[in-house]
Design brief:
This protein has 355 residues and is of the alpha/beta class. The protein contains 17 helices and seven strands.
């Protein structure tokens, strides 16, 4: 009864009709939207009228994981909206994150670590002869996920970003179970489909994906040309930051493997619960940076010389700024959703360099 009163109070406040509330209650995502309304502070009603219609209706059309995964295999064409790929707001947000997150990495003391293996990266230069210690690696961030829309909607409605360090679900919706291992939105699917032509012109000999669902879906959509011709491997090392934020908590491998039986999950922890995920804290930047470094050494050890990796924004930013040595500023900026960057990566053992 208390919940119903809260729901209808929020609905009245935001001028949502009873039949819309009825429809929202019938879907998993709709119930998530209702919870956001109940938890949210009271922003000006005129502002709500401007922003509620589009993002909330976009959330409603999301569906549960098995069907979403199945739809990701469909051979559909990208819409004209996705062809533009990114809005001005998305680009501005990425520019802001580039500044603030780099400052955070400096404050955490992870920008000047002296790694045993120096990892240098630059734009791919076809005029250079590829050395034995160099690989071509195509890094892609996943497309727009359900959790991304929640954060964007929160920011539009309140005027403030989600407080991702808060342990209070009313301040941080990324703690709620409805964002568990968030899948792609339809916008995210179209973003990844729009990358298909670009990916088809590349020649990876292996595709390595984060085992989080949104990364697998993104890989399946963007890199479909290479689906049956090269190995596909899931690796915990390129997951997003571990801990606290439920959107980054992995589903059980048995559940994911049922939908994607052709992906090799042998390098992932074979557990029904995500034992790597820390419920009460985010992964410390030093630990995350070490995980990025170890993963890059894994790529170095692979026999393949051209590789595709599909992962996540914070992980990729950490890689480009705290682990790799990169001179080109545009390669170090925050990745946009579905963006692919091709890097020529060189590994130098510092002990050998001294000889």
């Amino acid at each position: 009864m208390e919940r119903q009163l809260a729901i209808h109070s929020a609905a009245k406040r935001e001028s949502l009709c009873p039949h819309k509330i009825f429809f929202l209650e019938k879907t998993r995502v709709g119930r998530a939207v209702i919870q956001i309304l109940v938890d949210m502070p009271h922003p000006p009603r005129q502002k709500l009228r401007l922003v509620v219609a589009v993002p909330f209706l976009a959330l409603i059309v999301l569906i549960d994981l098995p069907t979403t995964m199945a739809l990701a295999t469909m051979n559909t064409k990208a819409t004209s909206t996705a062809q533009g790929k990114w809005s001005d707001i998305a680009i501005q947000t990425a520019q802001g994150l580039t500044i603030t997150e780099r400052e955070r990495l400096y404050e955490e003391g992870v920008m000047d670590i002296d790694w045993p293996v120096q990892i240098k990266a630059q734009s791919v230069d076809s005029t250079l002869t590829q050395a034995t210690n160099t690989k071509i690696i195509h890094f892609q961030r996943h497309g727009q996920g359900f959790h991304n829309v929640i954060c964007e909607t929160w920011r539009e409605l309140t005027g403030n970003p989600v407080n991702l360090v808060s342990t209070d679900p009313k301040e941080n919706p990324m703690l709620r179970e409805y964002v568990l291992d968030s899948p792609l939105t339809e916008v995210g699917r179209q973003q990844c489909l729009a990358c298909r032509d670009e990916a088809s012109r590349l020649q990876p000999e292996i595709v390595v994906v984060s085992p989080l669902v949104r990364a697998i879906q993104s890989a399946e959509l963007s890199w479909s040309t290479h689906r049956s011709t090269v190995p596909w491997v899931a690796h915990e090392g390129c997951r997003e930051e571990l801990g606290l934020l439920v959107c980054n908590k992995r589903r059980s491998i048995s559940e994911i493997q049922t939908v994607y039986p052709d992906i090799d999950f042998s390098l992932c922890a074979q557990d029904d619960t995500d034992t790597l995920f820390m419920e009460d804290q985010r992964e410390p930047p030093r630990a995350n940076t070490q995980r990025v470094y170890d993963f890059l050494l894994y790529l170095r050890a692979l026999p393949q010389t051209e590789i595709a990796v599909v992962g996540h924004s914070a992980w990729l930013f950490n890689m480009c700024n705290a682990v790799m040595e990169i001179d080109e500023e545009h390669l170090k900026s925050w990745f946009l959703t579905s963006e692919i960057r091709s890097l020529q990566v060189t590994f130098v053992d510092k002990e050998e360099e001294k000889v």
